[in-house]
Amino acid sequence: MESVTFTVTQGEGFHRLCQGCEEMPFTRGDIYQFNILEDGTAVVLRRVRGDLDCARHLIEEEPNTLGYSVTGGSQGEGLAYVHAQPPESIAEVVRLPRKHEVVLDFPLEGVSDTEVRVTMVSETRAVLQEALADIPEDVDVTIERIGAYPSNGQDVSGLLTDRQQEILEVAVDIGYYDVPRQATHADIAEQTGLAPSTVSEHMQKIESRTFGALAG
Questions:
Q1: Class of domain 156-215
Q2: What are phi and psi of 65, to 5 degrees?
């Protein structure tokens, strides 16, 4: 199997930023499901973190929202189910499996509030290239990796994006995995220029993917 990993900018609308806030009161994480209905609207299941009451308010105020539900506990982490008019950039990507022999590897990774990282899988690289060519030119897509789809028994570094590999290398170099531990997420954030919360999310994905592959 072959795969391609790329980021796509989703723009404003469906997941618009909170206007007028100095800091984002909540963040949007991975997309677990994204289904386009016959009428062109979409239903999405996505991780949210932070002030969930603020998340409910912003989703409700978004003009493209048709219905929603946000569930979560006291730790400020939950799931948002949203029925809405989707951003066309993401919709174009989600439609690709209808026209090409490809599948999307869910969850789609929420890189930021404006970017989503997608891994697309197919039998051959030629099919992947055909699918990529079918994405309209006005959709902002950045290809990060193309090659064999990682599976158990392969080098676990192939499970990680370039950014995740960079973060892992920094973590190892500054002693995050030493015993006793010599560094924190804040130290990794300082070295990589990322926010500590972003580093924390990346580290969770890195450890889940690498440890899961080793255990398998």
A1: mainly alpha
A2: -75, 130
